[in-house]
Design a protein that fits this description.
The protein is α/β, with parallel strands linked by helices. The chain has 3 helices and 7 strands.
Length: 132
């Protein structure tokens, strides 16, 4: 099974961010090397919606340029599901455009949880998030 390595501190940063934007969905990008996240980009959700996200294209482009300039890779795309579900939605699957790990931060009983998924051929499988 594939995995993505995140520090506990990075995970807490993501949770704090998505929690501060709830009930709206929020999103961003994760970059690094060798499946290890080194940099988090927070990207505005242009949809300003509680049920979907559309990344601001300029912010996304700027992030991609930064990632290239550091010779890093885009490793993941995260977004929140403030009211669940824990897994990628049919819309997430239909709109997945990159071969990266999709991280869903979902909230239930006021607790956030993160899960990773690989989306391919109209389906998905879980990616282990290794929290170090
Ligand atoms: Zn989603």
């Amino acid at each position: 099974m594939q995995s993505l390595i995140l520090s506990n501190e990075q995970l807490q940063v993501l949770i704090t961010y998505v929690d501060s934007h709830a009930p709206l969905e929020s999103c961003g990008l994760l970059a690094g090397r060798d499946a290890k996240v080194e940099k988090i980009f927070f990207v505005q959700n242009q949809a300003h919606s509680a049920v979907r996200y559309v990344m601001d294209p300029i912010e996304q482009l700027n992030a991609f340029e930064w990632i290239d300039s550091k010779e890093m890779e885009l490793l993941g795309i995260f977004h929140s599901h403030p009211t669940g579900p824990e897994i990628v939605s049919p819309t997430d699957i239909a709109e997945a455009a990159y071969a990266v790990t999709y991280i869903i931060l979902s909230r239930a009983d006021d607790k956030w949880r993160a899960r990773g998924f690989w989306i391919e051929d109209g389906g998905f499988r879980e990616v282990t998030l290794q929290i170090t």
